[in-house]
Predict the 3D structure of the following.
Amino acid sequence: GNKRGGFAITSFNVFNMTNTEAWLILNYIFYLSAAKAYRLIAQYDNSPLNIFKDNPENLALNLGEEFYKKYSELDVNQFLDKIYKFCEKEKASIICNDSIDYPSALKEIYDPPLVLFIKGNKDLLKQYQGIAIVGSRKPSEYGKQTAARFAQVLAEYKFTIISGMARGIDTFAHKGALEGSGITFAVLGNGFGNIYPPENVKLFETISEKGIVMTEFLPNVSSLPVHFPYRNRIISGLSKGVLVIEAAKKSGSLITANCALEQNRDVWAIPGRICDKNSEGCNAIIKEGASIVLCPEDIIEDIDNTLLESNTKTNKTTIQLSEKEKAVFDIAGKYDSIELNNLFDCLNNMSWGEFSYIILQLEMKKCIKKLPGNSITVIHNS
């Protein structure tokens, strides 16, 4: 039960402890050290409860000084009470590693989270096909649209889009999936009591309603750079593969790609210009063997060819462009974004009136998008 009498650890009756509580205490003691926790659990017949029923001398020996100190100084009562109250208030569930609800894909990785805090419909974890989409926190307009477009199409094919709810590519991947009326999972590098970045609180709420937000971090834990590699192993672990869209040379997205390789998952990347800082990471992993993708269908084909065949009928709505529309579209496509005056200067034998009409047509056909400063950018509908 959630309510218990007060106790200090010395007089704490461990025989009342539940399995979930044992996992929660381990999650606290072994912060950022899941692999060590599993080695300890293995010493105790794979039962977290057995650990805490051991006599103090033995436990101190097996835990080691640093971890035993953390345990002995913990006010277990207060610790558990805070978590229960928080989860009740926030309608969050606690899923331990040995729970029936724990995602089976995560069981395959080297150091799965001991505990997952979940907001949303946990039944979605039972059967899903996940594709992770990650990339720069400061993407170009093209990167944002590519993320949203890929996520939307993959979601329409019933894939679950998994990302980290960070600024940039992550945000557009989640939003694209939601626009495709699809399901998306967000994995956080902080606890539910500290949503980061603050501007994504609304997105956090939407994903909690329509998908799942999860974290291995206790509610009061804030977002720290050291957390992101840990979060990234979960993003890739939940997925069949990871798609990297725009990543600099030392981007955190490349950590996710490396986790994916270690976990025997696919890695896909969208190639970029060789002089573009935001593409250096993608181009580098392509050089190392990541699969190049140019359209969402490339990923679907990699995972399950038959999906495309069953869906071709619905996909026959290719946009038809006139010769002049295509000419304007092709030139605009060579740039990340281009001012209308400059674009007009690239064209021969066309009046401004005709040009303006073509821009309107392209906009209505959702081939281009207007940007501030009288510029446009091409929407890459693969």
Observations:
- The CA atoms of residues 195 and 201 lie 7 Å apart.
- The chain has three domains: 1-90, 118-315, 323-378.
- The chain is about 45% helix and 15% strand.
- The two ends are 54 Å apart (CA to CA).
